[in-house]
Specification:
single chain, elongated, 4-stranded mixed sheet, 26 helices
Length: 549
């Protein structure tokens, strides 16, 4: 290759990388625009996974014994915990959740580009990066632990598909520190490839081991470490007095809070609706299924002729095997491996993108000019801006509670907890740096037994106090949990049945209301001097002032 050709390649690589980076910034800005410009736009999971980080900032007013925040911190993987700890030295949890997803998107798209570039060239490498960016960014919004799922998986695939075993081994360890779901996919790929190599060299397996013992030892050590890390983390979580062991599979299928109809976490539906999941998946893929089949045949045919990219081609064929296998294993071991369909979620984007780009590579081999290929890719990609409805996914607007947030922020610093309507409590820790007794997102981890006992006892007691006729019941509730402020919805006594609750709390509230048809609740008869008005719809009871009356 002469110097002019090298220079042209260098410039082409530079502009390709710059284009991928520009796409990431543009797509991030478009997708996150509401969250970047709106004070109260958030990913709802921030209430559980990010709000607790205010504990590391000097301007928080969390209660000294905030069990819910402590549990939220404990449930984070060690790698994510370390990243957030360092980040809080220079930013707030709100800026962390809003701006850091760009880093995840950049890492994902750059590794995708380099994986596909070697196989298909810069042009289709860019197309692959864009497609993967479109398909995966929703999982990164809010920068919870799952934001690391795709970046680390793509980093692993980059090293794995290029037979860089040192990078592959280190990737396994890093992934184990951040996101075990991606780790299991990576381990599955390693297992399949290891089996293939063992069969390929079965006649001289001993000699192959002796020849490659250093590389194999390093990989084996990293494999053991990567498995040990989530096991140790799981042991730590089980030992936590507020979290404990998980419910059994039988309990998850029978307890109401895990049901498909108004359950909080739909484990029941994940297990019992496999035919429906597969049926819906086929319906959604009905237009792409012929393309996938054609690409698979072409891919298999080319693998018989060309070995230069065999590792990448094989890995793509492994992906659906590993994804479906892990989904079935997660169903069998529920809830040990969490939600089964997550493994399809993390397998699909790379698998689909590879097959589509493979088809495009055939098309562009017939049409060498840029215009036809560009038009085809534009037709495939641009509609994603409308079909995906990006700004309506993974984000919620809490602006309707702005008056409450501002009032809570003005309240005197107090070590007590705040209780109130379950959705309002979600973002009080995020925006007001105050501890809440419960929140809707705080109930997400109820598949842990002790955590469910902790949270359900609090919410049952809250509903009892809210609908009590006897003021003494309210006093007992406030003292039991050291509730500093109680947010009350104006008119809740008239439309109590419309208060949203998941099972089993919906039935309990309904029973409480039926037992008091006159809506003669004690909270309706308290002197207004104990309340702080927060707009027309809400008021806040100063519990300490009321108890010291």
């Amino acid at each position: 290759m002469n110097l002019d050709q090298k220079a042209r390649n260098r410039y082409a690589n530079f502009f390709a990388i710059a284009f991928v980076g520009l796409f990431c910034v543009t797509w991030f800005t478009f997708f996150e625009w509401d969250m970047l410009t709106g004070e109260y736009w958030h990913n709802d999971d921030n209430a559980q996974h990010v709000a607790w980080m205010w504990k590391w900032r000097p301007d928080n007013h969390f209660a000294l014994n905030d069990k819910m925040n402590a549990a939220a911190e404990q449930l984070q993987q060690w790698g994510y915990w370390a990243v957030s700890r360092v980040a809080m030295l220079v930013m707030t949890p709100i800026s962390f959740a809003k701006y850091m997803p760009l880093t995840s998107l950049l890492v994902t798209c750059f590794f995708t580009f380099f994986i596909f570039k070697k196989r298909f060239g810069n042009f289709l490498g860019i197309a692959a990066a864009i497609l993967v960016g479109f398909l995966t960014f929703e999982r990164m919004v809010g920068f919870n632990g799952r934001a690391f799922g795709f970046p680390l998986l793509l980093m692993f695939l980059y090293f794995f598909t290029q037979n860089k075993w040192r990078g592959t081994a280190i990737s396994l360890v890093i992934t184990s520190l951040f996101y075990p779901i991606s780790l299991l996919i990576e381990l599955g790929l390693v297992a399949l490839e290891g089996t293939r190599l063992a069969l390929l060299h079965r006649n001289n397996l001993r000699q192959a081991i002796i020849t490659n013992w250093k590389k194999m030892s390093m990989v084996a050590i990293c494999l053991l470490v990567s498995i040990a890390i989530p096991v140790l983390k799981s042991t730590q979580i089980k030992a936590d007095p507020n979290i404990g062991n998980m419910f059994s599979s039988h309990e998850l299928l029978t307890l109401p809070m895990f049901g498909s109809n108004l359950g909080r976490v739909d484990f029941n539906g994940e297990v019992r609706k496999l035919p429906e999941v597969l049926s819906n998946g086929l319906q959604e893929m009905q237009y792409m299924l012929p393309i996938i089949i054609v690409c698979l045949f072409i891919l298999w045919g080319q693998m018989q002729q060309d070995s230069s990219h065999r590792q990448l081609d094989l890995t793509i064929l492994y992906l659906p095997v590993v994804g479906i296998g892990l989904m079935m294993m997660a169903r069998w071991l529920l809830p040990l491996l969490f939600l089964p369909t997550r493994y399809l979620t993390y397998m699909y984007p790379v698998f689909f993108t590879f097959l589509l780009v493979r088809l495009l590579s055939i098309y562009t081999s017939f049409f060498q000019k840029w215009l036809p290929g560009s038009l085809l890719i534009a037709v495939l990609i641009i509609p994603r801006f409308w079909v995906h409805q990006a700004r309506n996914n993974a984000q919620q607007n809490y602006e309707g509670y702005a008056q409450i947030f501002s009032k809570v922020e003005e309240l005197p610093a107090d070590n007590g907890l705040i209780a109130g309507p379950i959705f309002i409590c979600d973002m009080i820790p995020m925006h007001c740096k105050r501890s809440v007794l419960f929140s809707y997102e705080g109930f997400h981890a109820i598949y842990f037994k002790k955590y469910w006992e902790l949270m359900s006892a609090r919410y049952f007691d809250y509903l009892t106090a809210l609908t009590a006729k006897d003021v003494g019941v309210v006093e007992d509730f406030v003292r039991k949990y050291d509730v500093a402020y109680l947010i009350i919805e104006t008119g809740f006594s008239e439309h109590g049945k419309s208060m949203w609750n998941f099972k089993p709390f919906d039935k309990y509230l309904e029973k409480q209301l039926e037992g008091n048809p006159g809506r003669n609740f004690a909270l309706n008869h308290l002197d207004e001097s104990f309340f702080i008005k927060a707009g027309d719809k809400y008021r806040i009871l100063d519990c300490k002032k009321w108890l010291n009356r």
